[in-house]
Amino acid sequence: MASAIALFYYHLLVFVITLLVPAIAQVNTNVSVGSALFATDDNSTRTSPSGDFSFGFRHLPGQQDQFLLAIWFAKITEKTIVWSANGRYPAERESKVELNTAGQLVLIAPSGWESWRSSNNENPQVSNGAMLDTGNFVIKSKNSSIIWNSFDEPTNTMLPTQVLGFARSLLSTMSEKSFGMGKFQLRFRQQNISNSSYDLILNQIAVYTKNTYGAYYTEHNVSELIMDKSGYLLVKNSLGAISNLSSEGEVLRTESDSYYRATLDFDGKHYMI
Fold this sequence. Notes:
The structure is a single chain. The chain is mostly beta strands. It folds into 2 domains: 1-20 and 160-273, Orthogonal Prism (Agglutinin, subunit A), CATH 2.90.10; 23-153, Bulb-type lectin domain (Agglutinin, subunit A). It contains 1 helix and 25 strands. The protein has one helix at 2-11, and strands at 14-18, 30-32, 36-38, 46-47, 53-60, 63-73, 81-84, 91-92, 96-99, 105-108, 114-117, 126-131, 137-141, 146-149, 157-158, 163-165, 170-173, 181-190, 198-205, 212-219, 224-227, 233-236, 242-244, 258-264, 270-272. The strands form 6 sheets. Strands 4, 5, 6, 7 and 8 form a 5-stranded antiparallel beta sheet that branches. Strands 1, 15, 24 and 25 form a 4-stranded antiparallel beta sheet that branches. A hairpin with a 5-residue loop joins strand 24 (258-264) and strand 25 (270-272). The longest helix is centred in the N-terminal third of the chain and has 10 residues, at 2-11. The two termini are 23 Å apart. Pfam families: B_lectin. Residues 36-152 form the Bulb-type lectin domain.
């Protein structure tokens, strides 16, 4: 078991980022129905109440006219991106994302081309979108139920309190500067059709054909991968029992306020910070 856990942590490592800046006094948290954020140099964002996370457009590295619709750590110098909507299709300048009356975020180019739309299978009356202190962006109905949330559509990163279930996966980016789909995947694989047991696996993907290769890491009988509030990775099995994949020494603890994230990097390593 020890060697299996070590192998997993070689590919999924925890990063700890110490917060040294003061809290933001006042932030704009919500997105109202019919409102939009624009991809410009001085674009508006929506920030969580604590100021820890922001949602909006970010310049792609080295690209002044290409933008990523993303969520990032707002208080740290690196502004590390933890979620993105349009890695494969960067948005051009003056693109916009708006919350429509159907409860969907829609990313629209100046030409009118729609490159991304969030899902909404329930279609209740929408209230607003909001950036939460957990790093989760949610769309709420008028009865306060969650219509859609970014935690349910992860890209390459997990945050504390986030749960990865059998229908979800993490995909690496192509590189540090390119946020298109890379060649590494963390996902669930059903053991056999006759039961509901799943394996949590890491595998490579053929970037152009999307074909998957055999697993190079497997954790058997896993129904959920959980990142808890303290930055530890836990797995829940089909009987509901929870095991800790990490030991005390594998997640750095500090007395200062810290951020944690688990990222499947472009090189196939799963970093936890």
